[in-house]
Design brief:
The protein is mostly helical. Helices cover about 45% and strands about 5% of the residues.
């Protein structure tokens, strides 16, 4: 219900602000949203070996492993370009993040190995690290592969976005500073 209200609100705001085809109040503005408990799920210690093993056995496993190793948002990882990577420096320059700014992501040695292997095995003319056949030219929807990995790992209720939380949670457990996390 909250997502439906957000969509309706966005449509009306667009019609009011951008198109100028509606001049009344946004009818979704006064709808009280339902309470949503913040999600706190992340991969637990007993799940990690099974999860990583399932990733290793899946054709798209390196996508999810990079999500876990970098903490990057799914959309940024899907649109990752070879031209944004400096593997010698262990750096990925994300040109536009969710908040509209660019960001430098430090790549662990393991992430660099995965990227070197993936780039070395790819079509040299293709700039996307995770190419796709659709209009965008890159991977757009990895949910089927994610479901396959979760089934192989015998894990339930873990979302792709939870990999970001998993990285942060494990960093916190090992004493990393909030700046690093």
């Amino acid at each position: 219900a909250n997502r439906a209200v957000a969509i309706v609100s966005s449509v009306y705001n667009y019609a009011i602000d951008e198109l100028g085809i509606y001049s009344g109040p946004n009818p979704a503005a006064k709808i009280k949203k339902n309470y949503e408990a913040p999600r706190e799920r992340f991969a637990q210690a007993d799940e990690m070996p099974r999860l990583v093993s399932a990733m290793a056995d899946d054709p798209l496993g390196d996508f999810f492993l990079l999500a876990l190793l970098t903490g990057a948002r799914r959309a940024n990882l899907q649109a990752m370009r070879k031209s944004e990577l400096n593997l010698d420096e262990g750096l990925w320059r994300v040109p536009i993040t969710k908040n509209g700014t660019s960001q430098n992501v430090t790549l662990s040695p393991e992430a660099v190995i995965i990227l070197r292997n993936r780039i070395g095995a790819s079509d040299k003319r293709e700039d996307y690290v995770f190419p796709g056949k659709g209009k965008t030219g890159h991977l757009t929807e990895p949910k089927t592969a994610w479901a396959r990995i979760l089934k192989a790992a015998d894990i339930e209720d873990l979302r792709i976005h939870d990999l970001r939380r998993t990285l942060g949670s494990w960093q916190a457990k090992t004493g990393a500073s909030l700046t690093i996390i």
